[in-house]
Structures are given as structure tokens and as C-alpha cells.
Write a structure and sequence with these properties.
This protein has 43 residues and is mostly helical. It has helices at residues 2-31, 39-42.
Amino acid sequence: MKKLMYLLVTVSTTVLLFLATIMSSSACSISHYQPTVPETLRK
């Protein structure tokens, strides 16, 4: 029974870590968008 619990915890941790990595990388790519700034705002 302990081996089964250890396996479940290990697999669930791996899956959740993988999902967190995917979510954070997709959120970070959006923040790199740099639109062009109009000349009137540059002054």
C-alpha cells in the first residue's frame, strides 16, 4: 500500500509540475510583446 501511495504522489507531482511549466511559459511569451510607440509619446 505504501508503494502505491508513493507512486501516486510521484506521478501526480510530475504531472502538476509539467502543467505548471506549460502554463508559466505561455504566460511569459505574451509579456514579451512590444508594440511600436508613436512619436508623440516618445517625447
